[in-house]
C-alpha cells in the first residue's frame, strides 16, 4: 500500500500535467473531513440520497428481485457510516425479509465502527463485515450462489473517468449471477450554481479535504509542502457535467519529498489535478452500461431531482 502511494505520488508529480489520485484523500484526517463534508449545507448529495432511502423505501424494495422467504445477501461496496442504508435495513427487517448485510470496505476501522453501531441500533440484523478489495470480495461470494443485491451509493462512481466506470461496471456484472441486482447512486447533471458550492463550501472544509493530500505526503513521505502556499480550486461546467478539483501553487516554489530524495518545482498558478466528480444523466449511464450485462429496472429521484438511485438487474 505505502509503496504504491510513494510510486503514484512520484509519477503524478513528475508528469507534465501534475495529478494526484483522489483515492489518497482518505487517511484518518481525510475520513473525518469527508464526514464533515456530508453534513455541509452546500453538499446536497448525501441529503438527496437519504431522501430517496427514507421516503421511497417501498419503491426500492418493490423494484428489487427479492422475496421475504428467499435468503439473499445485501452487499454494500464502500459502506461508510450506513446512515442511508439503515433506512432500507429497518424496513427489510420489519417486513421479515431473510437476508444478511455484508458491508465491504478497505478500512477495517470503518467496518468495525459500522458493525458496532448496527449491533446496537438493529440488534436482530445479521451482519458480516468483509474487509478487502471490492472484486476479491464479490468473487469470493459468487460461489455461494445466493441471490445478491449490491449497493454502490453516494455517487462514488463519480470519481471514475467514463472508461474506468465502464470497466468497473463490467467487472461488477461479471461477479454477479443472473437476476442479481445492483443499486447504483449517482449525482445528476445540473446547474453550476448548485454543483460548484458543493465543492467550494463557505466554511472551507472541502478546501481542507483537498489540501490534506499535501499533509499526507508531508507525514508519510517526509515532504515539506507549505500548505498555506497552495489553494483549492474547483471547476464545473454544466455542459460537460464533471466537477474537477485542483490544488494550485500560489507562487513559484520547490518542494522536497524526502522519501523520494527528490525536489519538485511548481510554477506560480500551476495546477495539480486531484479529483473528478462525474455527474450523470440517462444517456451517460446508458453508455456506461452498454457493454455489461446489467440492465436498468427503475430510476428513483429525490424530491428536488438532484440525485438518482438506479436499480439494475443482470
Ligand atoms: C465520495 C466521490 C462522492 O465526489 O462528491 C466530496 C467526494 N470530494 N467533496 C464527491 C468529495 C469533494 C465525493 N464522493
UniProtKB/TrEMBL annotation:
Example of a GO MF term: methyltransferase activity
Keyword Transmembrane: no
Single Gene Ontology BP annotation: methylation
Protein's UniProt keywords contain Nucleus: no
Keywords: Methyltransferase, Transferase
Residue ranges annotated for the Histidine-specific methyltransferase SAM-dependent domain, each copy included: 5-312
Pfam families cross-referenced by the UniProt entry: Methyltransf_33
InterPro entries reported in the protein's UniProt record: EgtD_Methyltrsf_superfamily, MeTrfase_dom, MeTrfase_EgtD-like, SAM-dependent_MTases_sf
Name by which UniProt lists this protein: Dimethylhistidine N-methyltransferase
Species of origin: Bizionia arctica
